[in-house]
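Hi Prof. W.,

I finally got the tRNA-dihydrouridine(47) synthase [NAD(P)(+)] prediction working! I wasn't sure whether to trim anything, so I left the full sequence exactly as given:
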Amino acid sequence: MASGSIMNPFDVAARQLFAEEQKEHEEEPVVNVGEKIEVSFKNQKVERAKVLKVARGKAKANRGPWVYTVRTSDGTERKTRLSHLSWSRPPSKRQKVDLGSEYLRLLRRGNAKIVAPMVGGSELAFRLLCRKYGAEIAYTPMMQASQFAADPAYRKKWFATSLDDRPLVAHFCGNDPETVSRACRVAAEEGVDAVDLNLGCPQRTAYSGHFGSYLLGDEDRDLVRKIVRAMRVAVPARVAVCAKIRLLDTPEDTLRLVTDLRDAGAQVVAIHGRKRATWHKRGPGARDGPADLDAVRAVVDAVGDTVCIVTNGNVRDDWQPAIEKTKAAGVMSAEGILNNPALFATIAVGKNSPLELAREYLDIVAEHGNPAGYRSIAFHVRRICLKALETYDAVDELLDGSDLADARRVVDRCLDFEKRGDFVADPKAKKLAADRKKKRELARNNRRRFEGRMARKAKREGKPLDYYLKLGADPPSPADLADLKKLPHPDRLERWKLNYSQVCFNYYLAAGGCERADTCAFLHPVVEDDVDNLVSG
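And this is what came out:
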């Protein structure tokens, strides 16, 4: 029970972050009309009381400006400033939630090691590999709440799991409380340990679908609170409710978001230490810059143990510095663990080279599959053992493959070279590989420059930064493609430019596909090498 304090948890947090605004925060009422509190008058027994009225009174030293009229359970009405009494709110439903689950136990223990949600990247096979080497908690890839709730085939494809895949967090995107809550209810019935709301995805699909980080504006705050409350009601106490966010423009805004989520029912908030759609910014917190772990630490210090904070960002070769820097309950990795699935191993992997890790991944895929298909398989293998693939001139062979057997053949050949030590480089092959790599990098740089130009144009015109990046970026549906194929080529091309100007025409409609493949600057529906396009939050 609180004693001698007129500040609620948010006021305490705000005071720590914004000392210069301390007076303003301290002058806010600590309870509102209609709230129920537990209070002890003059050290008597604790009584339940209801707040009837809140009014500003004459200033009294160390007493606070607000006078509260309360009615106790015996009908007596009293006026009090609360500052000199012992009082508290009765435990809320959120506080009564069972904290005995393994997922929350690991977070309360501290140093929890977590695999981030990744579109096309955190499927079952990769999660199991990471768990083998020290990961304790894993998130599913981002799943559409509407499809997950309504379509068993969608669930079968994207929600593969196993008994060894625990604790598991189901990661959803959506913007409708009822729809998201239905998805969470189904996931809980499937036995997940937690459900998570995506409030961090910065991709253009999130912009056009109005989910992810595009729900973080003030205009959507009530909606976000409703979604989280609906999630809490939808799942049993054993299932934790979580949200994954990005930093907002100011520390104060980020803190208010976290406390809003907490008060709506979220027990865990994972913070990606970068901001959404910030092509025009540089330095810590910018989308392509280092994560701002100081900002994450400020939130951790402010909220204390009222909500578990997970830090995400700047986890490359070692996860411990991020924990030491932020003091968060857990650390989440995306890019680092893609490069090294044994990132969280407490003992050196020893004999397991990157190629051997890639081979282990392929063995797990053979057993459990990969719903995202070969491009995701090749993506994982490439990230795990890129240096070896480049050494043995095998990158392009991997990228040009089409099934699991092709990937196995590439990795096994490289393993043979590694063990025998008899590889002889072919200068011509080296040059071809270098040229193709250069073209891929050029295509990515061209795309980034285009995004920067469009963001600056939108900013000059007072539009959202993603305004022009949204135009023509959504790919055609199967029905649209069927209609386009019926048109003469000139008409087809004209309609394409009108509706799909950023999407690769040849990829969808040319007989041989796009010859540029991964060197094309237009949009292809593939897993890209930029991790920011993989990580959904």
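Residues 427-533 form one domain. Does that look reasonable to you?

Thanks,
D.
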